[in-house]
Each structure stands twice: as C-alpha cells, then as structure tokens.
Amino acid sequence: MPSGLSSILEKKDHDRSDILAMLQCSEEEAPLLYRKAAAVRDRYVGNHVYLRGLIEYSNICGKNCLYCGVRRDNSRIQKYTLTNDEVIEAAMTAHKLNFGSIAIQSGENSSKVFVDNIEELVRAIRKLTGGELGITLSLGEQTRETYRRWYEAGAHRYLLRIEASSESLYRRVHPEDEMHSFYHRLDCLRVIQETGYQTGTGVMVGLPYQTMTHLADDIIFMRDFDIDMCGMGPFIEHSDTPLGVRGTDNLFLRERFNLTLRMIAIIRIIMKDINIVASTAMQTIDPAGREKAISCGANVVMPNLTPARYRAGYLIYEGKPGYREVNETNISGLNFEHMPGMTLGRGTWGDTPHYRRRLSKE
Ligand code: SAH
Ligand code: SF4
Fold this sequence. Notes:
- The protein is an alpha/beta fold and 362 residues long.
- It has helices at 4-10, 16-23, 30-44, 84-96, 112-128, 144-153, 167-172, 182-195, 212-225, 253-271, 280-285, 289-295, 353-361, and strands spanning 48-51, 53-58, 101-106, 134-138, 157-159, 198-201, 204-205, 229-234, 275-278, 300-301, 343-345.
- The protein contains 13 helices and eleven strands.
- Strands 2, 3, 4, 5, 6, 7, 8 and 9 form an eight-stranded parallel sheet that branches.
- It starts with a helix and ends with a helix.
C-alpha cells in the first residue's frame, strides 16, 4: 500500500492540498520527496550545477525592507559602490575561471548615474568576453525603459524575488509606503518577463507571520507566473533591522532550512525544467546547505566574486559568509562527494530549457 506521499508523488498535476501535504510530510518521508525532485532535475535539466559568479555592486539602497541589513535606515554599515574597474576585474575572473555566467546584484537605486553605469558595464563585459559570459541582473524595481536598456545592452536574465506572494504578508514585512508596493513589484516582474529576460523570482522561507498556506500559495504563484528561474532561501534575522529584533515565535533556523529544502523539492517536481538556486543563506545555516539543496533538486550556485574588502558591507543577513574567496582549484566551493552523480557545468551559460519552451508557446 503506497504511503500518502508516494501516491501524491506519482500524480501528474498537483493541487494546493497536494502541495500542503508535501510541505508537511514527516521527516521520515521527506527523503522520498527529495529523491523524486533530484530525479526530475536529472531528467529535465541534467545532473549539472551551473555557476553564477556573484558581484555585489553596491549596498546603497533606497528601500527600507524590514528584514534586510542593507536597508536605507541602517546607518551602521559603511556604504560602498564598486568602481567599474573592480566590476570588470571580477567579471574577467569569472570568465578566466570558466564560470559561464555572472550575476550583478545591488541595493536598489534608480538614479540616472546608476542606470547609465549598469548599461555601460553590461556592454563592456559582453564585449570583453566576446559574448561568452552570461549576465544575470538582480537590481530591484526599475522602469520599463531601464529594463529594456539593460536587456538591449546584453543582460539576459533578471532575478526579482516577490519575497512573499501574499499581499498581506508582503505588507507585514515592508514599510507601508509607496516605495514598498506589492503591486508595483508584481508589475515589475511582468515587465521583466515581457522585456524578454529569463525571469526569476522567489520568496524567503520562515518569515515572521508566514504560514504553510502562504508557502503553498507561493509555489502556485511561481507556477502560474511561469517563471524560468527560482531563488528561495531561509529568512535569517539581522539585528540592525526591525524584524531582526523580534524573534520570539519565529521558527528555529533549522526548521526554516528544512522547509526551504521542501520548497525547493516541490517547485522542482512541479515546474521540472527551470533553474533553481541553492542559496548562500542555506550555507549560512548549514555548511553543507548548498549541497543539500542540490540533492533536493537545485542546480545553480552563486559563488561570491565581490572584492573581499567590501564583503562586510553587504551583510543582508547575519552570519553570511563574508570571507570565502573563490579558490581556483574548487571554483564552486561545493563538496561534490556530498552529491554523488552531479557534475560542474563550466564554460556554458546554463540556460533553462523552460525559457525556450515558454517562448515557443507564446
Ligand atoms: N535589492 C535587490 C537585490 C538585493 S537583495 C532586491 O531586493 O531585489 C537580494 C535578496 O536578499 C532579496 O530579494 C531578499 O529575498 C534577500 N534577503 C534580504 N534580507 C534577507 C534576510 N534577512 N534573510 C534572508 N534573505 C534576505
Ligand atoms: Fe534594499 Fe533589496 Fe535589501 Fe530591500 S532586500 S532593503 S531592496 S537590498
């Protein structure tokens, strides 16, 4: 007699109650979920881990998200913006080491200088690498025109986490003002997709006030939006933020970690051929966190290429590994012994089949 979980895993389509059952399966059953997700990953996108060399461009942010250490009102961090030479040097390191792709991430800034400069950097990196290095951007909410300019300059993937797909939960973890509108963020995600980017989104797992139903609905949101890439990670308190000092009835970090593994496995099982990040936040909670996420269906990691002296300034959450330099003999920093059967995808953009499939449907 198959268990409740195994009969759900055999289904072709999953509804909200199936997703809730997968999220809440017992610890004894969870390995079944994880193995299924890893098998789906191998079948639909292969057994490769792709790299996005992460360049944290600036910690100057106009927003004030209640969870984030880089928020505008955190005056305890030293503000920085990399010089163009520093960005290009990091990108060339990625190219030299055969990363295949980089990801440029930053606090949110829509000034003309910022927008022009990113456009110039994207163009320069494409030119200097003969178009070989893929470029992902994660630079927050921008205008349609800005997204278009950066796309035309040569960026082809954009990651904008919705953070929480429930409007009411979103409002509880952001200030109540025009700068933090759920619907504006949602519109931006649509514009990113319409512009032509491979579009990524995701949520934080274990936010205060978040319920299992919220998480199940996050999965449904990502499926219905038909995203190409997913980046999810556990919420981790930062003591210089309003949500960092709360803490009384928050889930334990280990519970958030385990729930994130389940979220990764479920989105893999449901969306099959998308790219899914094993986030650095997972590694912050568990040294083998990224390897565990990969064993549950993830296939992308983002090794940090930000020059070491700026790292302390980009502490979005506490405990984020700030010291680890990319090591030429192990550029991913992953321990492949923990992930039998996986190989490193080098020198390729590592695009999702999902993106091409989505375009062919349009
Ligand atoms: N400013 C851009 C990109 C940088 S922030 C943006 O917000 O889109 C990148 C991600 O860090 C955010 O999307 C958020 O999901 C995550 N993050 C912020 N604070 C966090 C925290 N305390 N714990 C875990 N993840 C956090
Ligand atoms: Fe700024 Fe992004 Fe942090 Fe929000 S999550 S405060 S937009 S860096």
